[in-house]
Amino acid sequence: MKRSSHYDVAIIGAGLSGLAAGIRLAHFGRRVCIFERHSVPGGLNSFYSLGGRKYDVGLHALTNYVPRGVKGTPLGKLLRQLRIDRDELDLCPQRQSRVVFGPHGGTGLRFTNDIAVLEAEIAPRFPAQIDGFRRLADQIRRAEEAALVSAGGSARELIRRHITDRLLEDLLLCPLMFYGSAQEHDMDSAQFVIMFRAIFLEGLARPPEGVRRILRVLLAKYRSAGGERRMQCGVAGIIERDGRAAALRLDDGEEITADHVISSIGSEETARLRAVSPTGAPDVLAEPPAGRLSFVESIRVLKCQPRELGWGNDTIVFFNDSERFTYARPAQQVDVRSGIVCFPNNFDFAGRELPEGLVRITCLADYDQWAHLPEADYRADKQHWMEEMTRSAGRFLPPVPGGALEAATVATDIFTPRTITRFTGHLQGAIYGAPQKVRDGRTSLPNLYLCGTDQGLMGIIGAMLSGISMANAHILHPGARE
Amino acid sequence: MTKDECKKLVVDIIADIAPDEDLSHLKPEVRLRDQLQLDSMDFLDIVMELRKRHSIEVPEADYIQLASLDSCADYLTPKFNALAAKS
Question: A6-12 and A255-263: which strand pairing?
């Protein structure tokens, strides 16, 4: 097929937001091309092969899960806008999750995709707070969409209007921060409302095949809509003429022109593409700084199901061994005081089982202490922290007999902030992007728009909705009131 | 193009946009939003599908004409027929 050098829309990045934007645009007859530097699609939610296995990067669970028949929620909106049938995603709900605090895991709350379970957990443990919790949940349920867009408030302040117990405040914030906050210490109140709905009021789910199922559906949709995609074809620069984005310069020097450009690679990352002028002289543009929050994640493959080791049916465990929960870039290489344990096997796959056991442990990490390590130190440090994270997380799980874990382990892998930056280009390994979001997706160029993490919606569902809404707002029906 | 044919075309579009909705008992005189879970994004998609499938243009000021199946038929049938007359 002869490749064009001009498109109606050029999309930078074949992650979930870029693919979703591409589907919308291609469906309505725009000539679109997605340019992806990596050989694999998915971006922050991609996959890789190692030792004959395929591993997900980033996918623990999708948020915003609702049972069939529930309408008017983000998942339903996404399925309609992308013309995808719910069954294609093969979403299976979580069984149950726990948030557990204290050096011996003494305080915890269970939650499932039914908010009544969380309420029933809070009532006996925090009897003075349960009414406040119900009022908070109700306020969040009723919050209007438009109100969510006006950001800038403090989640802690919002919570404190209804809940006066700091421990409960931290217990509630812990999973929401881990699954979708770019901000340290506090959370943007609009983002808090979005995440509270996404996780507590709606729920968590996963396809048995993980992220590859979702990517396969999106790629097929995009292709059948007529969208083009160039892989291993990164964008090296955005060329400006007459105050507009006129062309993209690809890694190999080829120039592509486009009427519109949508960039999913991040706000500062996009600014850096603009800062490379045709003469090669750098141009400093004022953009919000990159994100500060990154993670190390260990993956352990077991020859048995996790529950056969005695680890029970928990889908996800959010842990914190300290009195307060500190969600911030750590001073150490990895902060093992808190983290996430995810057991992908423990979703309700309706009779199916994953062929092998999987355990993922994730902790906050400092990008700077990983980025420039010599190779041997990097490998040694990864091993060290894998052991530390396993030991730390183990305090919050049912005990496994000595040696049993090692005997059951068939493979392990670890990725770090450096891995994230290397494969996605997101600076500082910041999977949730910059703390200040660009909610309208606009840049100082009238035909260059942002989608994805830095536009403000995070996670798999958020990324897709971001691509959809930016394609809609800026290209398909600009000026329409929604 | 009769008004009934026009209504069927609109229902076909809605069936693609909102396949999870039951369209079998739609009252043509009642607002679509009162019978179905359709939001503004869905209505914009109806407008775009009209353009994509039938080359019908609906300016923003006329979106209100698409409120019910009857009003859709009243508004769109002449547009369909005008297009057919040109070709």
Answer: parallel
Tokens of A158: 């919002």
- For residue B48, list chain A residues with Cβ-Cβ distance below 8 A: 28, 476-477
Length of chain A in terms of residues written: 482
CA distance B63 to chain A (A): 11
Q: What CATH number corresponds to the domain at position B50?
A: 1.10.1200.10
Instruction: Determine the residue of chain B that is closest to A477 in CA distance.
Output: B44
pLDDT in tens, A382-426: 999 999 999 999 999 999 988 999 999 999 999 999 999 999 999
Query: Rounded to a whole number, what is the distance in Å from the CA of B80 to chain A's nearest CA?
Result: 20
Judge whether residue A289 has pLDDT over 70.
yes
> A108 at the B interface (CB within 8 A)?
no
Secondary structure (3-state) at A192: helix
What residues 26-55 of chain A have any CB closer than 8 A to a CB of chain B? 28-29
Model's pTM, two decimal places?
0.95
What percent of chain A has pLDDT above 70?
Answer: 94
Q: Does B11 touch chain A (CB under 8 A)?
A: no
pLDDT digits (tens, 9 = 90+) for A104-142: 889 999 999 999 999 999 999 999 999 999 999 999 999
Nearest C-alpha neighbor of A471 from the set A58, A74, A6, A78: A78
Work out how many domains chain B is built from and give that number.
Answer: 1
Residues 17 through 76 of chain B touching chain A, CB cutoff 8 Å: 17-20, 37, 39-42, 44-45, 47-48, 52, 60
pLDDT band at A281 (very low <50, low <70, confident <90, very high): very low
Q: Could B16 and A86 be called an inter-chain contact, meaning their C-beta atoms sit closer than 8 Å? A: no
Instruction: List Cβ neighbours of A275 (8 Å cut-off, separation of 6 or more).
Output: A282, A283, A284, A285
Residues with Cβ within 8 Å of residue A259, at least 6 apart in sequence? A7, A8, A9, A447
Q: Computed from CA positions of residues A464, A470, A475, A480, in that sequence, does the dihedral angle turn out positive or negative? A: positive
pLDDT in tens, A213-262: 999 999 999 999 999 999 999 999 999 999 999 999 999 999 999 999 99
For the domain covering A6-59+211-289+432-476, report its CATH number: 3.50.50.60
Domain locations in chain A as residue ranges:
6-59+211-289+432-476, 292-428
Residue B84 one-letter amino acid: A
A50 beta partners = A53
* Helical segments of B18-68, H only: 32-35, 40-54
- Which of A80, A84, A476 best tests the B interface by mutation, with the highest count of B CBs <10 A? A80
